[in-house]
Amino acid sequence: MDKWIDLAISWLPFLVLIGLWFWFSRSAGMRARGSSGATLIELYEQQVAESRRMNVNLERIAAALEKREGTPK
Known about the structure:
82% helix; 73 residues; 2 helices; mainly alpha
């Protein structure tokens, strides 16, 4: 029984360090910010919105080109 207590005590600092590492990693990830000060989630949402606007514009261009090709010259 004494061996198990000694083993647990010897591993305790290592386990505490691992726990602190996980805690700091998660807290740093949640506070992650880009160079503009926005969080990474906000930056991602801005990118998604910009991609949607770009897709709408590309669809308009494609429709105009199809309409143009469909008319006789």
